[in-house]
Amino acid sequence: MSDCLFCRVVVKTIPAKIVYEDDQTLAFDDIHPQAPVHTLVIPKRHVASIQDMGESDQALLAQLLLTCRKVANDKGLADSGFRLVANTGRNGGQTVFHLHFHVMGGRHMAWPPG
C-alpha cells in the first residue's frame, strides 16, 4: 500500500530511526515522542488495525508482542516498567491506519491515559 506512511517506512522510502527489524516486524522511534522512550512496533505486512487481524494472524500477533518486549528490554525499561498501547479506530486515537504498538517508558505513566 504505497500511500501508507508506515508501509513506506518498511520499504525505507521514508527515513526512520530503526531500532529493531526481523522478517515480520519493524521497530522505530516515534518522531513525536510522548515519553523519554517512545518506539513504534509494526508488522511489515500492511494491516490497518487490530480489527483486521484474524485467527490466521496469531503467529504475527505473537511476534509483534515479542518485538515489543525486546524493544522494552533493549531500551532499558524492563525493570522500571513501560506502557504498551495499540490505538484502534478514530475514536481510539488511531491516526496512522497501519497497525502499530507504542512502547513507552522512561517516566511514570499516569492513569487514566486520556
What does this structure look like?
There is one protein chain. The chain is an alpha+beta fold and 114 residues long. The protein has one domain (5-105): HIT-like (HIT family, subunit A). The protein has two helices and five strands, in the order αβββαββ. It has helices spanning 5-10, 58-74, and strands at residues 18-21, 25-29, 37-43, 82-85, 101-105. The longest helix has 17 residues, at 58-74. It is globular, with a radius of gyration of 14 Å. The N and C termini lie far apart (31 Å). The model has no long low-confidence stretch (mean pLDDT 95).
Task: Give a brief outline of the structure.
With 114 residues, the chain is an alpha+beta fold. The protein has one domain (5-105): HIT family, subunit A (2-Layer Sandwich), CATH 3.30.428. It has helices at residues 5-10, 58-74; strands spanning 18-21, 25-29, 37-43, 82-85, 101-105.
Task: Please render the helix and strand layout as text.
Blueprint lengths: L4 H6 L7 E4 L3 E5 L7 E7 L14 H17 L7 E4 L15 E5 L9
Count of folded domains: 1
What coarse outline follows from CA principal-axis ratios? globular
Mean pLDDT: 95
Q: Please report the total strand number as a whole number.
A: 5
Low-confidence stretches: none
CATH superfamily: HIT-like
Known CATH architecture: 2-Layer Sandwich
User: So how many helices?
Assistant: 2
Structural class: alpha+beta
**Level of helix content?**
10-25%
Largest sheet: 5 strands, antiparallel
| CATH fold title | HIT family, subunit A
- Strand order within the widest beta sheet: 1-2-3-5-4
Distance between the termini: 31 Å
Please identify the oligomeric state.
single chain
Rounded radius of gyration (Å): 14 Å
| Proportion of residues in β-strands | 15-25%
Order of helices and strands: HEEEHEE
**CATH structural class:** Alpha Beta
